[in-house]
Amino acid sequence: VDEHRFSPAPARAREDGPIRLVGLFRIVPNKRPLLWLETVAALRQRHGIALAPRIVGTGPLIDEVNRQALRLGLEDLRIDAPQTDPSGIYRDSDAMLLMSSVEGTPNVVLEAQACGLPVAACDVGGVRDALHRRGPDAGLLLRADIRAEGAADALAAWLPGAISAPREGRVAFIRER
Quick one: CA torsion of 111, 145, 147, 76, rounded to 10 degrees? Predict the structure, then answer.
C-alpha cells in the first residue's frame, strides 16, 4: 500500500452529519451488493442510525441495485463510478462495509485502513488477515454467512466506538504488515 497515496485524513467531528458509509466493490453477485443495501436499510430501520450510503463501483447488477435501493427506502444512495485514485473515496468516508462472499487479498480493506478508516467485512478469503482486529480501533469481522439483520445489529454496536477511536492503530497495522 502506497503510504503517500493512502494516508489518513483528519477525522471529522461526529456532529457534522450522518455516518458516511462506503462500499467500494464491483457490482457483481459475489460482492453481494443487495446484502450491502439490506444491511444499510436495517441499520436505519432497526437502529435509527443516520447514514449517508455510498457505493463506488460498476457492474452488471447496477440496475438491480438501484431498484432494490428504492424498494428499501434508500433514495439517498449515491452510486459513483470507480476512480483511478480511490484514496479520496476513503478520505470522504467515515467507515467502509464489505459484504463479499469471496475475496482473495482484499485491497480495499488494506487501503481503507491505511487511510485510517474503520472497516467491517465478512470473514472470507484473506479478510481475516487483512483486518486490524485488536484494540478500540479494531475492524469488525462478520460471519461469512451473515444476514442483513445480524450484520446491522453487529454494526450498530461497533460503529460508534470505531468511528470515534483514534486512527493511528489502523494505519500502524497496515504499515507493520
Answer: 30
